[in-house]
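Hey, can you fold this one?
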Amino acid sequence: MPASERPAQAAPVAAEIAEQRTPAWRRYLGALGPGLVTGAADDDPSGIATYAQAGSAYGFNAIWSLALCLPLMISVQLLADRTALVTGKSLGALALERYGRVGRRVVGGLLVAQLATNVLNAAADLAAVGAGVHLLHLGPAWVWSPIAGGVATVLLVKGSFPFVARAFNALALALISYVAVLVIAHPHWAELAVRTVAPQVHADKAYMMLIVAVLGTTISPYMLFWQSGHRIEEMRSEPVGGSEPTPLRRRWWRSARFHRRVEVLDVVSGMGFSQIVSFSIMAATAITLGAHHAQNIQSASQAAQALKPVAGRFAELLFALGFIGSGMLAIPVLVGSASIGISSLMGKRWGFSRPFREAPLFYWLIIAATLGATVLSVLPVNLIALLVVVAFVNGVLAPAFLLLLMRLAGDRRLMTGHRPHAAARIGGWVATVVMSAAVVLVVAMQFV
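Sure. Predicted structure:
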C-alpha cells in the first residue's frame, strides 16, 4: 500500500476506536433515529384516517392486517438501511450506477410519480394539521395549514441536520398520545389479542379494499428512500470520515459490527413503535366508534370529534395533538424522500446536512413540493378523494420500488461482506409479492 494512503485510512480507525470508548448505552441511543422517524412518519394523518375508518367500520376484524405488516415493514426497511450502511449511497445513487439509460429513465419516472403523490399526501396532512389546531380552538384550519407549510419549509431549508433530526424525534413522541387514547378507551385486552391473531374476515368488496388500503398505507415507497437517506445523513454527522459517509467495508470491524446491531435495533424499534400506534388507533376507534356503528369516519379530525362523547374531552385533545405532531413530521419526510431520490439519481448533491449552495436542486425540489402542498391544502379540493387516488398510485408504485430494493440488496458485488440476513431478504420478497397481489386485487375489484 502506498504510504500516501495510510494516513487517510488510519484516521477513521483512530476515530472509531475513540468512539468505542463511549459507554455502550450512549452510543446505541445516539445512533437511533432513522427507523423511529420513518416509522412515525408512516402514522401521518392520512394513515390515521385509514386506521380509524378500519376500526370504526369493522371493529377488531381488521387489526390482523397490522400484525401481517409488521415483519414485512421490518424486512424492507432493514434492506433499505443496509444498502446505505454498506455503500454510503442512497437508493437513487445506486440506481444511477447500476442501471443503463433506459433503467434510469424508468426509475426517474417512478420517482417523479412518487413526488406528485407525496405532494398530494402532504397537502392532506397540512389540512389535517390545520384541523387539529382548530380542534384546540386556536383558530380556523385555513389559517394554520399555510402556517404549518411555511414552518416546515423554513425548517428544512434553513435548519442544520442535527436540529432537523432533533425536531423529528421530538415530533415522533407526539404519537404516544394515541396509545393513551387506547388506554382511556378501556379495551378488553384478551378479546383484542384473540381478534388480532384470529379475526373474522369479511368477504365483501369494501372490507378487502380497506385491507389493501391499510397495506398500502403501512408499506409505502417513500419510506424506503427516507430510511436510506436519513441513515446516510447520520453517517455524515459522525466524526469518522469527515463530511462524507464511511461505508461498512471501510470501517474497523468492531465499528462495523456495532453499526449492524444498531441498524437492527433502530429499524425494529421504529417499525414496532409505528405499529403500536397504528394498533392503538384502530383498536380505540373499534371500541368506541365501531361499538356505536359510526362507520362514516373520513378523516382523523372526524375521528377525534366522534371520540369526544365516548372517551371524553381528554381523548379528543390527545387525538388532536397526535395528528398535529404526526402531520408536521410526515410533511418533511414525504417531500424529502422523493427529493433525495431524484437528486441522487441525477448525480446531484443532496441532504439537509449540506448548505443550499451545495445542493440547490435538492432544496428547490423541497421548496416547490412543500409550497405546492401548502397551496393545495387551502384550496376547495376534496383531499379525502385525492387520498384515494394517492393510495392507489402508491400501491401501484410500491412493487416496482420494492423490486428495485431487492435487486440492489441482493447484489453480491455491491453488498460484499455485509449482505442482509436471509430472514430480511425472504421478508422483502414476501412483501414484494404481497404488495403486487394487492395491486392485482385492487384492479380486479374495479371490474367486480
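The CA atoms of residues 86 and 415 lie 6 Å apart. Let me know if you want another pass with a different chain boundary.
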